[in-house]
Amino acid sequence: MRLFSMRAVWFALVVACTGIAGALAEQQPENIPQENSDAIARTLAGPLLQRQTGTAVADDKFWAYEVDFNLDGFSELYAYVPDPACDGVKCGIFLFVLEGDNYRELLGDIPGARLTHTDRVGLGAFKRNGFIDLQLDEKLFGWTGDRYADVSTFPATSLDGAAFIAACQKSRSNEQPEEGETERVAGECQCQFNRFQAIGFTQADLDQYAASLGDKFDYPSGDKEKAWQAIATNASDTATGCDIIGGKSQWQPAYFNHGDQTQEKLEFNEFISACPTQDFILTNRKIGSPDRALGLCGCLAREMPTQGITQAGLDLVTRYYRDEISDSDAEAEDALAMHDKASEACLSSFP
To answer: Which residue positions does the secretion signal occupy (predicted)?
Structure first.
């Protein structure tokens, strides 16, 4: 199983997420969007680590960064608390995922997971149930729908793939194939077939998808449409995973309406401290809980720099949150307009 570095995949996703701003950052001596993202991740992870372990962890005693495991545009939080005598309870690696109203830590349910050495933590090539597979040392874990579990515990199937392989090769082949193309296409189709069995496709699922690769396929509608969409999504994810293994593709995050301004390096602690307690955030129909408010505030902190906000502007928004300045004083500055654009982008896509 090919192992993809968490940091490398995270960096690729950040570049894709930040768009023009990320491209501009490559021309700067520092990768400021990455540094801002790391700073936000540490600020968000601090209280979550304290809640999880029952002990406050000093800012200089852990590191954290963002990885978007389900590619919805809102990052999960990956944190590491080093300790030479780590017992895997209050130290080691942690993964926080916002599910419903709360952030959940997922690695505590996997025996020994927290003690995995950081250079043996990575992302797999495939998605399962919407989340990218997680590699911990020699074991691969897939998403069950609410947690990660060893992929060996998932039910697999044994299928007749002759019709699918034939349809797949036909759909991917050119009339005049280049040298080596036939073998490459055969390998890609075999990869997909193997994965379909691993994720528990039924024979009916496989046959229906094989039929969809032909010229005359009657796409399901009505009551059957939802089931077909699930098959098609799994098939598309499988094809992307096989292309990633072949070095032809990478996972792309969901579209997000980022700003395109060059970022400056910012300090976010005060803003993120003030933000989640705001009534207009907590009472928003998409929020409704302190953890969801924290997640939204992390998004705001990420997005305002793409709108070009400065440290002075971010501090002004923080003071506005704390009722230290009036509406008229705040509205006289561009920072509030940048905040409103970021709010619109975050709320429109918030899960």
So the answer is: 1-25
